[in-house]
Design goal:
single chain, alpha+beta, Nucleotidyltransferase, domain 5, 16 helices, globular, binds adenosine-5'-diphosphate
Length: about 500
């Protein structure tokens, strides 16, 4: 009887590996950070070899620390930074360029071209996405257009495209498997969201040869076995890879948001909110993305997704630029000394506002200052500002989906903040449930992999394995909530359209 499932979590700034036992408890974890490459302002790259090395090192360390034999591992699940784009040579396995990271803005001109040609609506209808440099398709286009000889090589069938999951699987199988899962594929802007297949019309429109594209498979199922002699992973030979999902999708699953109307929000540098909308894809009227939640043998499940560009980063700003607090936990402790106020607001629109406000020209704002405003009140306004933005997103989601949020499951670094979590529950008038283990992304990947090999036997088991750490119950009067949110919306209006 195999005792563990190993999750590989290949993130934007680090690669992690976590080993889970049958109770879904993390018995060991390791993290290896790696460096970011910024060749020009707005451009972000990763070295594809460094992605592999760091991920494999994390896997070895994780297993060594636990003293576990790879023979005890039933399956491996992979979760990854989404949208990040690689092209490599099928014969040599060598990348033609660095990985272009999701944050990279270099393909904005390709996006402008698509928008100017009037394709925005058609692309949204097919993919559920807004045309943006964030997604993989225009990053591939950039490589085909800008790198000498690459289009010719692509047309001759020599090259393979992959997001990071595909790159890992290709290398772990020594080139035998060229596959992705449907959640990662849903972020390329090349997948037909209803059919979950590559869309030939989009490939034609973007002049992307279909021969580049990997197979699309369900998130839970057999992808391949780790081959003999993968450099750095020799010990793991033979272990099956049976789960793959993009990081936010894995977190939704790891939070066991398995029923329509359930949602998770990750409170990190930014926030990522996903709401399960069930078997039906929902079209958003507020600029939220429609995306795949996951696809498992029992069927596909859809989600709405929205993000807050600046959340925990506002806390970092208080700490690093204003030097008003020593640390993020100190900010939270300071904020907890005062009550949320309806006369002082902070809008963290450092880089504009995303859904549902969509104003690239909005900028940050602190309003309502009086002679009595002190550090504690400002810290409070900064934390509360995160919760208001999440509440606005949730309102938009509820309207789009025609569903009421049942409970909000929280994770990410800033979910450690008690005043933030309580205020979120108060604002939403809904329970906020923080799990005991906030590493929900890796856990979700483990769940997908474990389900496929019978390590866990079904969704009921998954739901029972999620352990609540703390529940924040709403305790605010309705009038006060209304007054606070009205003040927030006044502040927000003043932050909009600032930059000319
Ligand atoms: P990411 O994965 O985006 O790098 P994390 O999930 O690690 O982010 O969360 C880190 C963010 O959370 C930072 O922006 C930090 O300011 C914020 N943060 C961490 N701990 C706290 C806390 N106790 N109170 C408020 N914010 C916090």
């Amino acid at each position: 009887m195999k005792r563990f499932v190993l999750a590989l979590d290949q993130g934007t700034t680090s690669s992690r590996a976590i080993l889970y036992d049958q109770d879904a408890r993390a018995v060991s974890q390791a993290q290896v950070e790696f460096s970011q490459i910024y060749p020009r302002p707005g451009w972000v790259e990763h070295d594809p070899e460094v992605i592999l090395d760091s991920q494999f090192k994390a896997a070895r360390r994780c297993v060594d620390q636990a003293g576990v034999m790879p023979a005890d591992i039933a399956a491996i699940g992979i979760t990854n930074q989404r949208e990040t784009t690689l092209l490599w040579d099928r014969h040599t396995g060598r990348p033609v360029y660095n990985a272009i990271v999701w944050q990279c803005r270099r393909s904005a001109p390709q996006c402008d071209r698509l928008s100017a040609a009037g394709y925005t609506e058609e692309i949204a209808a097919r993919t559920g996405l807004v045309v943006d440099a964030y997604f993989s398709a225009t990053k591939i286009q950039w490589m085909l257009e800008e790198l000498p000889g690459v289009r010719e090589q692509a047309l001759s069938g020599r090259l393979a495209f992959g997001t990071v999951d595909t790159w890992l699987v290709w290398n772990l199988t020594l080139g035998a498997v060229h596959a992705t899962d449907s959640t990662n594929a849903s972020r390329t802007m090349l997948m037909d969201l209803d059919r979950r297949t590559w869309d030939p019309r989009l490939c034609e429109l973007l002049e992307i040869p279909a021969s580049l594209l990997p197979d699309i498979r369900p998130s839970s199922g057999f992808f391949g076995k780790i081959a003999d002699g993968v450099p750095g992973m020799e010990r793991f030979a033979g272990i099956p890879i049976t789960g793959i999902a993009g990081d936010q999708h894995a977190a939704l699953f790891g939070q066991a948001c398995l029923t329509p109307g359930s949602a998770k929000n990750t409170y990190g540098t930014g926030c990522f909110l996903l709401m399960n909308t069930g078997k039906q894809r929902v079209r958003s009227r507020s600029g939220l993305l429609s995306t795949l939640a996951w696809e498992i043998p029992s069927g596909a499940c859809y989600a709405l997704e929205g993000s807050v560009f600046n959340a925990g980063s506002a806390v970092q700003w208080l700490r690093d630029e204003l030097k008003m607090v020593e640390s993020a936990p100190a900010c939270s402790a300071l904020a907890a000394t005062v009550e949320p106020a309806d006369d002082l607001y902070f809008v963290s629109a450092f880089t504009g506002l995303g859904a549902p406000h969509w104003d690239m020209y909005a900028r940050g704002l602190l309003i309502g200052l009086t002679r009595g405003t002190d550090r504690a009140r400002i810290a409070r306004a900064v934390l509360d500002g995160i919760a208001y933005q999440v509440a606005d997103l949730i309102d938009a989601m509820e309207q789009d989906a025609g569903m009421r949020l049942t409970d909000l499951r929280a994770d990410g670094g800033a979910s450690a903040s008690e005043p933030l979590m309580q205020f979120q529950a108060d604002l939403l008038d809904c329970r906020v449930d923080r799990p005991a283990d906030i590493e929900t992304t890796a856990l979700g990947a483990a769940f997908f992999a474990g389900l496929a090999v019978g390590f866990w036997d079904g969704l009921d088991t998954i739901a029972s394995l999620r352990r609540t750490g703390k529940v924040f119950t709403p305790a605010m009067e309705a009038d006060r909530r209304t007054r606070l949110r009205a003040g927030w919306h006044r502040a927000l209006e003043r932050a909009k359209a600032w930059e000319e």
